[in-house]
């Protein structure tokens, strides 16, 4: 297992620490959708002009789950698949709106 301290010394941050930090950051952003939903509503409205608050919560849940999957090495592949699907879904919604 690569810790932050050994990652700094050995340069192996990309093998364990970096994906974990990215995943936890994404999960934290997802949770923030529930704590301060008004902060995300202006950008959510671009893709979801109707029922924006509900979609803000749904996006928060998606980001939380995807982020947690990315942070765990055993589920990282599923997290990457989730990111691709999520970005594709949001991109399609923005184009359709």
Structure description:
It comes from Gordonia alkanivorans CGMCC 6845. This is DoxX family protein. The chain crosses the membrane at residues 21-40, 77-95. Keywords: Membrane, Transmembrane, Transmembrane helix. The protein is mainly α and 97 residues long. It is built from five helices and no strands. Helix 2 (17-35) packs antiparallel against helix 4 and helix 3 (38-47) crosses helix 4. The chain is elongated. The chain has one domain (15-96). The relative contact order is 0.15. The protein starts with a helix and ends with a helix.
Q: Please describe the biggest sheet, giving its number of strands, its sense, and whether it closes into a barrel.
A: none
Put simply, the count of helices is 5
Q: Quickly count the domains.
A: 1
Please compute the radius of gyration using only Cα atoms: 16 Å
Listing every helix as H and every strand as E from the N terminus to the C terminus, the arrangement reads: HHHHH
Helix content class = over 70%
Say how many strands there are.
0
Average the pLDDT over all residues and give the rounded result: 90
């Amino acid at each position: 297992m690569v810790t932050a301290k050994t990652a700094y010394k050995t340069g192996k941050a990309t093998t364990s620490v970096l994906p974990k930090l990215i995943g936890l950051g994404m999960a934290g952003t997802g949770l923030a959708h529930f704590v301060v939903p008004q902060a995300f509503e202006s950008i959510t409205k671009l893709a979801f002009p109707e029922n924006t608050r509900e979609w803000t919560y749904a996006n928060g849940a998606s980001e939380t789950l995807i982020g947690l999957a990315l942070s765990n090495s055993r589920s990282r592949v599923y997290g990457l698949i989730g990111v691709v699907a999520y970005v594709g879904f949001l991109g399609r919604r923005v184009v359709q709106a």
